[in-house]
Amino acid sequence: MRKFGMKKLLMGTTAVTTLVASGYLMYREMVGGQRPLPTPKKNSYALITGASSGIGAEFARQLAALGYNLLLTARRGGKLAALAAELQTAHGITAEVITADLAQSDDVAQLESRIADLNLAVLVNNAGFGTTGGLLASDLEAQMAMLNVHITATMRLCRAALPGMTERGGGTIINVSSISAFFPSAGDVNYPASKAYLNVFSQALQAEVLASGIVVQALCPGFTVTEFHDTDNMTDFDREKVPSVLWMTAAEVVSTSLHSLNPNRVICIPGRRYQLMVAGVKSGPTALILKIARKFRQRVR
User: Fold this and answer.
1) What's the CA dihedral at 81, 87, 92, 93 to 10 degrees?
2) CB of 158 within 8 A of CB of 271?
3) Checking DSSP bridges between strand 120-125 and strand 224-225, what pairing results, if any?
4) Cα radius of gyration rounded to whole Å, the chain
5) What is the pLDDT of residues 237-279, one digit of tens each?
6) Which helix (H) or strand (E) holds 28?
7) Which domains does the chain have, with CATH numbers?
8) What are phi and psi of 101, to 5 degrees?
């Protein structure tokens, strides 16, 4: 009996040690080789979608502080205009506003046309939203709109940005994904699926544009204090069920992103806890970790 108990203890210790070691190595890989953005030229612009609040608004604030002119887009024109005025006054930059719904093809086309005339140095594809409920229970139009925003609009805006960035010999593209890309679960199947697409798309795109000096990042934040969970589509979400240690601020997420740009490390996961969780899925007892993650996600709905 003692022999059996010792064997289990050794196996458990080995598994934990392996997980911690692999997690540490992945942590180093995720945060190593940080490269801050280059100093912007006088007419350099950053385009940020979903810029009216949360992570998008924080990208606007931090990029404006670095001296980038801004093209801000979202559905809420009033909030965009207020943010643009704030940042122009604070940093002496130019901030342009285009009200657009990226689920609509014509609105995406409007941005594509504007990109062609810009000295676009940074593209941040941040627009997005989530839904709750199973595939059959969720509204089909809402699901299609989400996929259009997360996948189709992101692809089109990246494609529109490439000619100018290539001609100028460089640029930065940040596609805002999610930690959920690594933890698929029942209840909102298209959200993690669309975010997994963004990860793969970003990695493949980086391989394509490497010789052009363009850096591509897939930013995968975990729970972030924003308005994301306050929309009508997320009425079943309960913030109180998420441990406080898992929440990050938008400022922390964006700062990590802007200081982790590296063509050799496309996936950026802010927060060591989240990095270790993903490391465990990739190299540890995957089935167990996924089971725990799925139970947790079901709890917070």
Assistant:
1) -70
2) no
3) unpaired
4) 20
5) 455 666 666 789 999 999 999 999 999 999 999 999 889 989 8
6) helix 2-31
7) 36-299 (3.40.50.720)
8) -110, 110
272-283 vs 286-299: helix crossing angle, rounded to 10: 130
Q: Three-state SS for 221?
A: coil
Helices (H), 210-271: 250-258
Say if pTM beats, i.e. exceeds, 0.85: no
Catalytic annotation, residues: 191
Mean pLDDT of 131-142: 89
Could you tell me if 70 and 93 are in contact, meaning their C-beta atoms sit under 8 angstroms apart?
yes
**Separation CA 262–CA 231 (nearest Å):** 33
The phi and psi torsions of 44 (rounded to 5 degrees) equal -75, 140
81-134 pLDDT tens trace: 999 999 999 999 999 999 999 999 999 999 999 999 999 999 999 999 988 788
Q: Helix 2-31 crosses helix 272-283 at what angle (to 10 degrees)?
A: 120
**H or E element at residue 167:** helix 154-168
Q: Is-contact 202 177, C-beta < 8 A? A: yes
Tell me the residue type at 137.
Answer: A
Residues whose CB is less than 8 angstroms from the CB of residue 8 and which lie 6 or more positions away in sequence, other chains included: none
- 3-class state of residue 73 by DSSP: strand
Residues 6+ apart with CB under 8 A from 300: 237, 238, 239, 241, 242
CB of 83 closer than 8 Å to CB of 57: yes
For residue 39, the model assigns a pLDDT of 84
Q: How confident is the model at residue 34 (pLDDT cuts 50, 70, 90)?
A: low
Spatial distance between the Cα atoms of 281 and 185, rounded to a whole number of angstroms: 14
Percentage, residues of the chain above pLDDT 90 = 65
Q: What is the pLDDT of residue 41?
A: 86
* Residue 163: count of CB within 10 angstroms of its CB: 11
